[in-house]
Amino acid sequence: MRRPSVSFVIPMFNEEENIERAIDVAVDALTRYTDDYEVIIVDDASTDTSPMLVARRAAENPRIRMIRHEKNRKLGGSLKTGFAATTKDLVLYMDADLPFDPDVLGRAIRAMEVTGADVIAGYRHDRTIEGPRRAIYSYVYNALIGVLFGWPHRDINFSFKLMKREVLEAIDLKSEGSLIDAELIVKAKNHGFAIQQIGLDYFPRVRGQSHLSSPKVILKIFAELVRLYPEMRRKVPRTALTRRFASPSPADAGEGPRATSFAPPSPADAGEGPRATSFAPRSGEKVPRSGG
User: Fold this and answer.
1) Domain ranges of the chain
2) Where are the alpha helices (DSSP H) in the chain?
3) Which of 97, 202, 221, 285 could form a disulfide with 281 if both were Cys (CB 3.0 to 4.6 A apart)?
């Protein structure tokens, strides 16, 4: 039986303490469970050495590639860039601080095969390990999404989401911030895709700094929720689905920063760091594969 190919997307912002380990364990899991994979790291205008570290890994493995934002676009912008660049059957995304063991990919693929689900969404077995404040935020937010959209989800903001690429081609993601997780799940459900949840062991961050739980991030979630609420409530019959990626970013419309795609440096460039070789494709354009 043919094993599905997998695109592994990692959004990154100033993760020099984590990114090399994240890439290494991701590649280890991918080589175990698929014969065809790609790792796409979206650098959200990092100011530390993490882009150079990724370029070094890409030079060693042509299946790894980096797309860089010239201006910080937050989690939603990074994921939309990464999702639009995927070329494989299945797409998995993970935060760069390794909140779970990527080896659970095998279990998730099996769950997808057994249940016939289009999306496998992970939830943390124990969220209280980060303290009562973060746990309360999570419980309240998950309850709110359930009330507003009529479907209970145990941990909607957890980064483990394995999905068939057709899900991303069918839904139009608009969030630029951390609402992107809820928007993805709610719109997938509204389009008639089957979603299953599986419990995972959770590893809280031990290196680097989290940028996803500040008051500013939380306020942006609610601002985007108000703006996108009517759209997220809309049901779309499966027969009406059209193949499309996320809507063009402000950069594609000539209004903002463009994402640049980096190829591994040649030997002649080894001492110069990563070099921009081309702009990332705009929505709707065919994405060239990098490596095998």
Assistant:
1) 6-279
2) 19-33, 50-60, 74-84, 105-115, 132-149, 165-170, 180-190, 215-232
3) 285
What is the mean pLDDT of the segment spanning 103-108? 97
pTM exceeding the 0.70 threshold for the entire prediction? yes
Token couple for 28: 């280890």
Q: Centre a 10 Å sphere on the Cβ of residue 2 and count the other Cβ atoms it contains.
A: 8
Are the C-beta atoms of residues 37 and 30 closer than 8 Å to each other? yes
Residues paired with 122 in a beta bridge: 198
Whether residue 82 contacts residue 67, with contact meaning beta carbons closer than 8 Å, is answered with yes
In contact, 138 and 156? CB cutoff 8 Å = no
Instruction: Provide the β-strand partners of residue 163.
Output: 91, 119
Classify strands 195-200 and 37-43 as parallel, antiparallel or unpaired: unpaired
The secondary structure element, H or E, covering residue 43 is strand 37-43
Instruction: Pull the structure tokens for residue 235.
Output: 């049901």
* Distance in angstroms (rounded) separating the CA atoms of residues 25 and 68: 22
More confident residue, 255 or 259: 259
Radius of gyration of the chain (CA): 18
Residues 256, 45 contacting (CB under 8 angstroms): no
What token pair was written down for 228? 């996108």
Q: What pLDDT does 290 receive?
A: 41
- CATH level 3 topology of 6-279: Spore Coat Polysaccharide Biosynthesis Protein SpsA; Chain A (3.90.550)
Distance CA 277, CA 262 (A): 6
Residue type, 207: R
Distances (CA, A) of 164 to 70, 141, 198, 237, 255: 29, 26, 16, 18, 31
Q: 113-135, pLDDT tens digit by residue?
A: 999 999 999 998 876 776 777 78
Which residue is listed with tokens 């929505």? Answer: 283
Encode pLDDT of 138-183 as tens digits. 889 999 999 999 877 889 989 899 999 999 999 999 999 999 999 9
- Give the residue from 180, 169, 134 showing the smallest Cα distance to 42: 180
Dist CA 62 CA 125 (whole Å):
35
